[in-house]
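Help needed: design a sequence for this.
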């Protein structure tokens, strides 16, 4: 039977270093997929296993027993923590270069405003009450102004049971939405 101290020790040695490597990988690779706890544990263990493979291959510590015997040694502690983080950094940067995506920081409302200064894209607004409304973006509030969007030529899209658009209902010339109305927004180019 494993005591609780041994369980804590095993978690500290096997999961947490890999977890930090995996978090660094996700940060640099601009990964946005949410993961459940099981996936996080599995990827953390995978990063730890890869890290221990690197440690066993390229250091005098050729097996886990040697690492356990020297666990209080500063070089072993540094190895256990820096190798997974270095692997996470390398894999994350490689993925970032391959994907060629940029991570934006700050309020997403302001970030999208800055990108849309010169464009007037088409917009589909999905409301809190389940409606789908399309139009052309005319105005979106920024900074001190309350978060709101005004679209021109709004149309309510009615879909059938197979989620195909069946009807478009014109809703006037302009329509105002506040952040309390909006569930999600998608943008598209209009012609």
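Sure. Designed sequence:
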């Amino acid at each position: 039977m494993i005591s609780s101290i041994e369980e804590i020790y095993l978690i500290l040695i096997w999961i947490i270093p890999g977890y930090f490597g995996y978090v660094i990988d996700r940060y640099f690779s601009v990964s946005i997929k949410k993961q459940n706890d099981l996936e996080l544990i599995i990827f953390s263990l995978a990063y730890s296993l890869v890290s221990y493979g690197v440690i066993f291959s390229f250091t005098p510590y050729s097996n886990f027993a040697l690492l356990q015997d020297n666990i209080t040694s500063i070089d072993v502690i540094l190895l256990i923590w820096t190798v997974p983080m270095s692997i996470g950094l390398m894999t994350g940067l490689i993925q970032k270069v391959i994907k060629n995506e940029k991570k934006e920081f700050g309020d997403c409302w302001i970030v999208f405003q800055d990108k849309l200064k010169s464009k007037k894209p088409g917009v589909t607004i999905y409301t809190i009450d389940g409606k789908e409304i399309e139009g052309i973006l005319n105005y979106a509030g920024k900074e001190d102004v309350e978060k709101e969007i005004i679209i021109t030529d709004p149309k309510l899209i009615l879909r059938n049971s197979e989620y195909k658009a069946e009807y478009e209902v014109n809703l006037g010339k302009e329509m105002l939405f506040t952040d309390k109305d909006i569930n999600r927004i998608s943008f598209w180019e209009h012609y």
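The chain has two domains: 4-99, 108-188.
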